[in-house]
Amino acid sequence: MLSPSESKLTGVPRTMLMTTRACVEEHQRSNGLFQDPQVAQWWQSLQWDSDLDKFYSFLAQISWVVRAHRFDQIAQRHFANYEEAIAIELGAGLSTCYYLAQFFSRS
Fold first, then answer.
1. Are 37 and 26 in contact, with CB atoms under 8 Å apart?
2. Using one digit for the tens of pLDDT, what is the confidence trace for 21-75?
3. What is the pTM of this model?
């Protein structure tokens, strides 16, 4: 696994870290909306850009988490209804939808 100093993001929007951080914080809550071990593992290799602190708040965290959770629910429902379904994520940033779909298909 790369250390945070080896994995500084370049050439991509730094703002994708905001949803990732929000999901990590939700994963760490004992009463969180969801558990996402993949995003927590990825976070260990990422470096938070402190310039983003001015945009990050409790309300922002909740909105990003609810949005991510809803997208995951929709995807899971689709995969459950269509056995041969294929998902292509465009512009999804650090989405763990693929890993969550694998997790829920084993449950």
1. no
2. 999 999 999 999 988 888 899 899 888 989 999 999 999 999 999 998 998 888 8
3. 0.74
